[in-house]
Structure prediction request, 165 residues.
Amino acid sequence: MSTTSIGCRSTLSGESCVGVAVKNARPGGSLGLSARWLQPMSAHRKIQGAGAGQARQRYLSKDELRRLGVALGELEANNAHGFYAAAAIRLLLLTGARVNEVLQARWDWVDWDRKCIVPPDSNTGSKPIFLSDPTLAVLRDLSARPEAATGGFIIKGRLPGKNRS
Prediction:
């Protein structure tokens, strides 16, 4: 069933005008989509914490880090893909880099002498990722794997020559 206008009906059931439009809109239509976007979130879906425009900082506790280390160890032991997934998570935690910066990093970007990964210039300029000693240890473990010589990406994907996405 579709509707041609979003008239605000006064409902005794307490439904909002947007709720009525969502009920009457076609599921695949733009009216249905825009009406769902405008519909207020129910209380159980609201996210508590930082409001709009407020940065949120959260650090893992020692117990959380310990449990994460155990889980990453199990993931590494699972298979080669688990090894790369665990290494990606470790690199993310140790560098503070963005997910795509880690997943798209290439071996020829690693400057072992300056201890950084230097990606090519982007729209926002070149932003080196500085590497601590534990991060260098993760990279050394990755570079020691036989498949590291065949692919250009540090975190290899399931398909040869592709990064993990």
About this structure: The longest helix spans residues 62-78.
